Every structure is written in structure tokens, then in C-alpha cells.
Amino acid sequence: MDKVIGPRNGDPSGPVVDGPTNPMVTPLLTDLYQFTMAYAYWKAGKHDERAVFDLYFRRNPFGGEYTIFAGLEECIRLIANFKFTEEEISFVKQALPSSCEDAFYNYLRGIDCSDVEVYAISEGSVVFPKVPLVRVEGPVAVVQLLETPFVNLINYASLVTTNAARHRFVAGKSKVLLEFGLRRAQGPDGGISASKYCYMGGFDATSNVAAGRLFGIPLRGTHSHAFVSSFMSQDEIINKSLCSSDGLRTCEDFPSAVQTWLNKIQWLPSFHGTFGETNQSELAAFTSYALAFPTDFLALVDTYDVMRSGIPNFCAVALALNDLGYQAKGIRLDSGDLAYLSCETRKFFMAIEKEFGVPGFGKINISASNDLNEETLDALNKQGHEVDAFGIGTYLVTCYAQAALGCVFKLVEINNQPRIKLSEDVSKVSIPCKKRSFRLYGKEGYPLVDIMSGENEPAPKVGERILCRHPFNESKRAYVVPQQVEELLKCYWAGKSGKAVECLPALKDIRDRCIKQLEKMRPDHMRRLNPTPYKVSVSAKLYDFIHFLWLNEAPVGELQ
To answer: Where would I find the beta strands (DSSP E) of 147-255?
Structure first.
């Protein structure tokens, strides 16, 4: 269900927006220098001056040429409930120099975001460097206090969503992707956030129970090696009976039925030499788990030996369940040569189906885990494998290949005066003034270029040729005749301006948007190795203004 948002602070009659998912996200979740600047603005009488800030990033992560924007809803939850408590103000007072006037703390008591406006690209969209993900307008001191939490809430969210989308792209649409990263994530918030944003980026389920409750993400999980090795023999199984799926009959000694099937498998000519005696404690563990979960039996088969014990034991239990009308869910491989073992396992399953006439047995699900990442998925694809589902943890949730996205929050206008941040590194030069952003599509339906223009410039029109210029490189320019024009920035928080605002979509809808957006991208932008850079441009008028302001603000050197 979409969430309608409105100015709770400043308008008690407006719709109530829940606070941030993490209760640690409060007005104090910011850097000290935001408070020192707020005081300096207040002391100079500048605190209410109308400012415009852009939040964007400079480079796509993981060596790729696209990023997925995420974290917007948490930002809106923050500003909808942005209010200092007395305890927080007391702490700020202790942190700042004693010379700060008491009247400043009265000013903090009255701060909320009722005079702030937030414009953003829709969450779950494919985005590119330099194009503002979020534009925040409001009193400069208030917006400055939002800088750190906004960057914090968007930086990791967008990074891990992009990482998930890249894993999905390599795995392919037909594979099930499971996020198993909670135990290796950077703390509880890292784990909860990773589960949410990996789902947004295209994963199908999570092992994280708390995330399942909070966000409605499907849960998946079976058992560990500890469960298997905790059993010593079949004698430990006390309750041995199992009722059939239709409830009409009962197998009084299910472990014996399992053993009978194992004997039958051992005598099959097609398996002679493949295995001898299997590990009986593993068989006891599988049998016990099947008695507990007859409709959801999925076994971890690599505790002792996959092909000589795990797979035969699994098949014996699965066939005994089949006699009672149940269908085993599958197996999980957590070590070894996953390509080879998955192929051998599939052959084993298909032989069982053929020999015993059990329809569908050859297609039983094969899952794999074991420190998987983008590279190992790609390698498995090249080797050939029979894995249906991948459980991915450490490399996914920690974003092992890149630590941070590098979002920045830059002042682009104050009191209607455009501002620019200069640097000897041209990639760090900001693009000034309040802007509009558009995505231009070509004849084949793929996005061709994103273009930024001044707020008061006319929007690009379908079928009309427009000059797109690189913001800083004079020679890079091209004419585009768009077949579709999409305006990117939409109002998500109107404050007291009265403007219409976008609803915050449900997580499932954002996930669907992400998947559809990625399907629209040209394949050469998406490939893992040497992807084609996507073009980000400015209008001719904005290009001229950038360079005029650049020359106007840059000091002129003097040669001695």
C-alpha cells in the first residue's frame, strides 16, 4: 500500500508519518560541524535564508555504469518527525562552546521541517553521477542539519541495492536469490538495512526474521551443519510416526521406511561404485528434520560427503516422504566445487526419477551458498551448473568490492543566487543553481542521456532536437531528438508550500520498479566488463552559465 505523506510537524492535522525504521535516526544523528555552522548562521542572522542543496554522487560503484537510488523513504520519515527533545538540546549545549548564546537553543527548540521542500528521483530508479538524487530547499541552518543524516541514509542504501541488482543481473532472471548476510553484516542496522535493500535490488527472500517482520520480505532458511552433526544415530529419534499429507494414513515407523529406501538406492545398478555405507548420523538428522517439516524438507548435504552420503541420504528421506504424499523442497550445497557437485546431484536426481518412476524428482531444487559473490556467479555460469537458488551473504551485505558510494550534499543556490564549489579536480566541481533533470529516450525505448537544465528553462519536447553538452568538457556534445521525455525530480515533501506530493510506494512496488528500470537499460551499459558509460549532460544555456560562474568565482593568478 502506498503511503500518503504530509507535513506532520507544523500541521498537527496532517497525516502522520512513521518515524525512521532505526530509532537511532534522530536530529542528533549528524556531525558536530552541522551544529557549529547552524550557530554561526544564527549568529550572523543568516539562518532563515532560503537555500537549495543537491545530493548526488560522483562515480558509479563496483566498476559499473549504473546505480540504484535507495533510502528516500527513510529520509522522509526523518524530516516528518524532525524535532529536538529537551534532552537532545541539553546534550548539544554541552557539546558546543560555553560562549554560545542561550537564545540559540530556544531557536533549536522551534526547529522542524515545515518550511522544507524535498524533490527526489523515485526510489528504485536507475541513476547516474552528477544528476541530483535529492534536492532539498529550506532555511539554510535547518537544511544544513539534514545533510549528514540524508547522506548516511542514502549512501549505503543505494550502494547495497546496486550490489544486489548486479548480483541479480549476473545470476539471471530464472534463479532464486536469497540474502543470507545478517551474521556478517556491520551490526544490527547494517543487517536490517541490507535485507531491505537487497530485496529492493532484486533478491527474492532473506534469512533475517526481523527484516521479514518489519518489511514483509519473504523468509527462507533450513538448518546448519550443527543440526546434522548433533545426531549420533537413528536411535535418538523418539517420535517415529508421520501422518500422510491427506491425513488418511499414518506411517508408524518413518525411520525404517527411510532405511528401506536407502537400501533400494544402494542396490540400483546405476549407482554401483558411487557410494557404499552413508553416514548414519546424517541420515538420522535428515529423518528428524523431515518429521518436523514434512512439507518443507530441505537438507544441507555437505556435512560429511556430498555424493557418497549427503545426496543418497536425502533421496532416501525424500522418497519416504513421497510415499506419504509429500514433496521434498531440495538440498543446499555449502562447500566444494559447486558447478561439479550441482551437475552430479542433478544426474543423481534424474536417475532416481527414472528408476523409481517418481515424477518431478529430477527437478528437485538445488541451492548453493559458501561465500558467493558476483565473480563466482559469473564463473559458475561459464563452467555450467545446475544450481536453482543462491544464498549470498558476506560479499553482498558488506559491499566487499567497494566500501562506500561517496554521496555529497552541495549548496547550489542561496537567496536565489546560484553558488558553485570549485576544485582543481574537475570531477569535484559542483553544478550550480536550482535545476530540473530529464531522461531522454531513443527510438528503441532505451534511455539515451540524462540532461540537467535551469529551473526556468523550457522542458525538452518529444521530437524536438536538443543540444546536450558535457558539463565541463567543451568538445563533448551531441544533438538528441527524444522519442520520450521523463522528468526525474518529483516533490516528496512540500512542507507548508501546499504543493502536491508523491506517495511513498510499498517496498514490493519499489522492487518492481527497480527490476523494470534495469530491463529498460541498453545491454552495453549493464555488462560486467568494460560497460559503456551512460551520458549525463547539461543544456547549452546551463553549460554557458556554469562556465560564466566558474570564471567569475575563480581567483585570477598573478605571475611574478
So the answer is: 176-179, 205-206, 242-243, 250-251
The residues near 233 (Cβ < 8 Å, ≥ 6 apart) are: 280, 281, 284
Question: CA 334 to CA 302: how far, in whole Å?
Answer: 7
Residues 222, 207: contact at Cβ < 8 Å? no
The residue extents of the domains of the chain are 32-165+402-553, 222-387
The cell numbers describing 31, all together, are 556531525
For 466, left (φ over 0), alpha (ψ -120 to 50), or beta? beta
The angle formed by the CA atoms of residues 220, 246 and 355, to the nearest 5 degrees, is: 75
**Is residue 105 exposed (0-12), middle (13-18) or buried (19+ Cβ within 10 Å)?**
middle
Cα separation, 352 vs 268, whole angstroms: 9
Per the CATH hierarchy, to which homologous superfamily does domain 32-165+402-553 belong? nicotinate phosphoribosyltransferase (3.20.140.10)
Residue 9 confidence (pLDDT): 53
pLDDT exceeds cutoff 70 at 348: yes
Distance of CA 501 to the CA centre of its chain: 24
The DSSP annotation for 474-528 comes to TT-EEEE--SEEEE--EEEE-TTS----PPBPPHHHHHHHHHHHHHHS-HHHH-S
374, three cell numbers: 558476483
Q: Which residues are within 8 A (CB) of 45 and not within 5 positions of it... i.e. 6 or more apart?
A: none
Query: What's the rounded Cα separation, in Å, for the pair 482 and 442?
Result: 6
Q: From CA 398, how far away is CA 159, in angstroms rounded?
A: 10
Residue whose C-alpha is closest to residue 123's, from 77, 168, 167: 77
- Note the CATH number of domain 222-387: 3.20.20
Q: What are phi and psi of 426, to 5 degrees?
A: -60, -25
Q: Is the pLDDT of residue 554 over 90?
A: no
- Identify residue 515 by its one-letter amino acid code: I
Closest CA to 167 of 38, 283, 61: 61
Determine contact, residues 433/418, Cβ cutoff 8 Å.
Answer: yes
Confidence of residue 15 (pLDDT cuts 50, 70, 90): low
